[in-house]
Design goal:
By secondary structure, the chain is an alpha/beta fold. The protein folds into 3 domains: about 120 residues, Enzyme I, Chain A, domain 2 (Orthogonal Bundle); about 100 residues, Glucose Oxidase, domain 1 (3-Layer(bba) Sandwich); about 325 residues, Phosphoenolpyruvate-binding domains (TIM Barrel, Alpha-Beta Barrel), CATH 3.20.20. About 50% of the residues lie in helices and about 10% in strands. The strands form 3 sheets. Strands 6-7-8-9-10-11-12-13 form an 8-stranded parallel barrel, surrounded by 6 helices. It has a 3-stranded parallel beta sheet with strand order 1-2-3, with helices on one face. Strands 4-5 form a two-stranded antiparallel sheet. Helix 4 runs antiparallel to helix 5, helix 8 crosses helix 20 and helix 13 packs across helix 14. The longest helix has 29 residues. The chain starts with about 35 loop residues before the first helix and ends with a helix. Bound molecules: phosphoenolpyruvate and magnesium ion. Phosphoenolpyruvate binds next to strand 7 and helix 17.
Length: about 575
């Protein structure tokens, strides 16, 4: 996203405070002792609270209509928090007992509450501190003389917004016509702000850190949301390059629109199922909008990472049910907890390990702490009455792990049946595994006799086959799903499934790569699951492909020596197919 040179990026930098709008930053940390009459201050606080609540509910209502239930929930959640016993009553108490002003009480309690969230060793909870500060800013702006000052929604010129942090309630108000992009110093991938930016389709780099300090008001900026890159005061050559990229991206977006309503079908009429990978209920909304034919991977660990303690069976059932209902009868594959490796759960107190990716992870934890997996399986089964759910076990290394996991599933089913709970019948609910460890790929013929489906997890399959840590940038050059050894494993898995009359999918990153599409079509992959945004690109790639030619191409590719040769051959094929 490039701001036009005529009106250089007029950035609004709120580095002095946690909110995005400079005019609303009132310095939560600088307490000034204002001696005021308590009763009057209590009345002011009460007024600020009811006005803030009304504002938030109205905003939630508008957001529900434009962005959907999940996004609206962030705002109505803030409105609800206004009544939280640990939030509002302590403010009143402070005014009464310490004689401080309403303003000081808000500042103190917000700083204290947000600080408590931040102190928790959990990225999700830390990001919720931003929600609380946002709420504090709203109360403070109600308490200020002008009732709020300049708001982001008042901006009427094209700008790139630069802020210390951008609160969710500010983000939903951004008007795409004027806010071309935004950059924040704080925040992370799981922050609501990131999720909202994605839903709004605004280019954003969230959590840019100290780089934000180099930006001055009026600087020209390039914000590359795809790559997470900001370029301050670009030179002419960089500017020209990005202008070209922007034009190409706009052209591509228009071209891709034509495929939105189309089926996923090759030139010669072979259809495949294009599904989406999600981590939250909210992403199911986006998946449905982008016409995913199902959810090929619901990474349930985010539900666990967002919680302070293990989510109960009821809480899990509600989340799985919400996704099932949102997908309205389309298949939803729920992967059981894949924690460990790079994903921690503070409340589980997992041991520190030298090689976490080779250690206590995913199904290994589930089979060790059986009550944990059993609860999750019960929750999925209970939600199975509300849609077409499937269960998938991660990191299965061979038959004994699969059989133990399957036995727990049978146990959960038997328990619920005995309790008289309505659940999908065994025929309606498929149970499969992720193939992401080479040993499982090598035993795919045996596993295929027992499972209902495979889903190939190339993200891990590549790291384990090539012995390349997927997180280590020093060996990233070796990490390549086009390595012929990986391709042989993929072929083996698909063939094994088909031999037993089962289907094979893929939910690793390779499935969403248009360059891989001819190969995967040629290998006969049945279900392709990817970030919802990639679906339309794969549809376009498929439309130019002939399945017979792709089968032949796949044979040729598997006979090559190196990933570089495979990539080059695919690039040639892509060029010729255009
Ligand atoms: C994979 O390994 O390919 C996969 C989809 O799972 P994750 O990325 O969650 O490990
Ligand atoms: Mg994996």
């Amino acid at each position: 996203m490039i701001s036009s040179p005529a009106d250089h990026a007029a950035s609004v930098d709120a580095a002095a405070g946690p909110a995005s709008d400079a005019a609303r930053v009132t310095g939560l940390t600088s307490l000034q002792h204002e001696q005021t009459h308590s009763e009057a201050e209590l009345a002011l606080l009460q007024q600020a609270r009811s006005r803030s609540e009304a504002e938030l509910l109205a905003l939630a209502e508008r957001t529900r209509a434009t962005l959907g239930e999940e996004q609206a929930g962030i705002l109505s959640g803030q409105a609800k928090f206004l009544a939280d016993p640990a939030f509002y009553p302590p403010m009143e108490k402070k005014i009464r007992e310490e004689g401080v002003s309403a303003r000081e009480a808000v500042q103190a309690i917000v700083t204290h509450t947000a600080g408590r969230f931040e102190a928790l060793n959990n990225p999700y909870m830390q990001e919720r501190a931003a929600d609380i500060r946002d709420l504090g800013q709203r109360l403070l702006s109600q308490l200020s003389e002008d009732g709020g000052g300049v708001r982001l929604s008042d901006i009427r010129e094209e700008v790139i917004l630069v802020a210390h942090d951008l609160a969710p309630s500010d983000t939903v108000q951004l008007d795409k016509r004027y806010i071309l992009a935004f950059v924040t110093r704080a925040g992370g991938k799981t922050s609501h702000t990131s999720l909202l930016a994605r839903s709004l389709g605004i280019a954003a780099v969230v959590g840019a850190g100290e780089a934000v300090g180099d930006i001055a008001d009026g600087d020209q900026l390039i914000v590359d949301g795809d790559e997470g890159v900001i370029i301050v005061q670009p030179d002419e050559a960089t500017l020209a390059e990005y202008r070209q990229r922007q034009t190409a991206a706009e052209y591509e977006a228009r071209e891709l629109e034509a495929y939105l309503g189309q089926p996923a079908i090759s030139r010669d009429g072979v259809t495949v199922e294009l599904a989406a990978n999600i981590g939250t209920v909210q992403e199911a909304e986006a998946a449905a909008e982008l016409q995913a034919e199902g959810i090929g991977l619901y990474r349930t660990e985010f539900l666990f990472m967002e919680a302070k303690q293990l989510p109960s069976e009821e809480e899990q059932t509600a989340a799985y049910r919400a996704v099932a209902e949102r997908m309205a009868g389309k298949p939803v594959i729920i992967r059981t907890l894949d924690i460990g490796g790079d994903k921690a759960l503070p409340y589980l107190q997992l041991p520190r390990e030298d090689n976490p990716f080779l250690g206590y992870r995913a199904i290994r934890i589930g089979l060790d702490r059986k009550e944990l997996l059993l609860t999750q399986l019960r929750a999925i089964l209970r939600a199975s009455a509300y849609g077409q759910l499937k269960i998938m076990f991660p990191m299965i290394s061979g038959l004994s792990e699969w059989r133990q996991a399957r036995a727990l599933y049978e146990q959960a089913r038997a328990e619920l049946e005995a309790e008289g709970v309505a659940i999908a019948s065994p025929d309606e609910l498929e149970v499969g595994i992720m193939v992401e460890i080479p040993s499982a790929a090598l035993q795919a013929d045996r596993l295929a006799r027992e499972v209902d489906f495979f889903s190939i997890g190339t993200n891990d399959l590549v790291q384990y086959t090539l012995a390349v840590d997927r997180m280590n940038e020093h060996v990233a050059y070796l990490y390549d799903y086009f390595h012929p050894a990986v391709l042989q494993l993929i072929r083996r898995v698909i063939d094994a499934a088909h031999h037993e009359g089962k289907w094979a999918g893929m939910c690793g990153g390779m499935a969403g790569d248009p360059l891989a599409a001819p190969l995967l079509l040629g290998l006969g992959l049945d279900e392709w699951s990817m970030d919802a945004g990639a679906i339309v690109r794969i549809k376009r790639a498929l439309a130019s492909l002939d399945s017979g030619a792709c089968r032949q191409l796949a044979d040729e590719l598997l006979a090559l020596d190196t990933p570089q040769e495979v990539r080059a051959a695919l690039a040639r094929h892509q060029f010729e197919a255009q």
